[in-house]
């Protein structure tokens, strides 16, 4: 069931979203050559602690997962698409890093992701990230009352496919509120004019995931969490939590 939020509740969700935005900015600033994903997770934990917020990621265990997620941030490097568990492998010059992060503050959740290069970026990676961000922007622009979930999915998918990138099958965005994952699902590809009608008070995580090689295939690591491109090509992930309002889309996880 889709849970509509009041204007006051959306303001409260914005407070959680600000924590997410600050954490992602802090992690990006700390992501230098030689830093480890585990160290980046510690940076994110520090932002949560300073804000008096908690992590909806830490200890999360959906049905597919063999173990609870052991960190506050998903840190996915190079060919890892999403759900990367932070480890101690130092980041190298030119690594492509996606960080997915959430915060729970006063019972409300914010969820966002960003992808960036460490050190000297590859031109192909810059194009991949720019396309992910453009797909996210297109999806957000479609999040207006009267449109449907399919309009968001179509907007995201059109940008990705037009650039020649793959979209991992079965993964996309979702509703956000008291829980990190609520109805409705928000696919990254679809037909316009289909699906749930968008109404003021709906809050959605819109999150394009792109595979540079152009295929949609992925594998899962033995940890049961990390998804990787099947062809070994690089991946990018961009996400914001967005409220549907009569005044237009409101991004809740901007810094």
From TrEMBL:
It holds the Pfam family Peptidase_M24. InterPro entries: Creatinase/aminopeptidase-like, Pept_M24, Pept_M24_MAP, Pept_M24A_MAP1. Gene3D superfamilies: Creatinase/methionine aminopeptidase superfamily. Its cofactor is Co(2+); Zn(2+); Mn(2+); Fe(2+). Substrate binds at residues 83, 181. Its EC number is 3.4.11.18. A divalent metal cation 1 binds at residues 100, 111, 239. A divalent metal cation 2 binds at residues 111, 174, 207, 239. Keywords: Aminopeptidase, Hydrolase, Metal-binding, Protease. GO terms for molecular function: initiator methionyl aminopeptidase activity. Binds 2 divalent metal cations per subunit. Has a high-affinity and a low affinity metal-binding site. The true nature of the physiological cofactor is under debate. The enzyme is active with cobalt, zinc, manganese or divalent iron ions. Most likely, methionine aminopeptidases function as mononuclear Fe(2+)-metalloproteases under physiological conditions, and the catalytically relevant metal-binding site has been assigned to the histidine-containing high-affinity site. It catalyses: Release of N-terminal amino acids, preferentially methionine, from peptides and arylamides. Residues 12-245 form the Peptidase M24 domain. HAMAP family: MetAP_1. Belongs to the peptidase M24A family. Methionine aminopeptidase type 1 subfamily. Monomer. Removes the N-terminal methionine from nascent proteins. The N-terminal methionine is often cleaved when the second residue in the primary sequence is small and uncharged (Met-Ala-, Cys, Gly, Pro, Ser, Thr, or Val). Requires deformylation of the N(alpha)-formylated initiator methionine before it can be hydrolyzed. PANTHER family: METHIONINE AMINOPEPTIDASE. This is Methionine aminopeptidase. The gene is map.
């Amino acid at each position: 069931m889709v849970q509509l939020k009041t204007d006051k509740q959306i303001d409260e969700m914005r407070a959680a979203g600000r924590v997410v935005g600050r954490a992602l900015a802090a992690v990006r600033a700390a992501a230098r050559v030689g830093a480890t994903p585990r160290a980046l997770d510690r940076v994110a934990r520090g932002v949560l602690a300073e804000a008096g917020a908690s992590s909806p990621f830490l200890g999360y265990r959906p049905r597919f997962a063999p173990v609870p997620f052991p960190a506050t941030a998903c840190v996915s490097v190079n060919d890892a698409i999403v759900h990367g568990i932070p480890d101690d492998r130092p980041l190298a010059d030119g690594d492509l890093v996606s960080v997915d992060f959430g915060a729970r503050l006063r019972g409300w959740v914010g969820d966002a992701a960003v992808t960036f290069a460490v050190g000297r970026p590859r031109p192909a990676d810059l194009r991949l990230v720019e396309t992910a961000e453009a797909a996210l922007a297109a999806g957000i622009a479609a999040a207006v009352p009267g449109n449907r979930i399919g309009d968001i999915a179509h907007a995201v998918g059109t940008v990705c496919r037009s650039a020649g990138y793959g979209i991992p099958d079965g993964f996309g965005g979702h509703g956000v509120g008291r829980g990190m994952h609520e109805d409705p699902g928000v696919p990254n590809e679809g037909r316009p004019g289909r699906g749930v009608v968008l109404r003021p008070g709906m809050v959605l995580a819109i999150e394009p995931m792109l595979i540079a090689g152009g295929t949609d295939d992925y594998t899962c690591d033995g940890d049961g969490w990390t998804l990787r491109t099947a062809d070994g090509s690089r991946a990018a992930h961009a996400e914001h939590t967005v409220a549907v309002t009569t005044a237009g889309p409101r991004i809740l996880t901007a810094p």
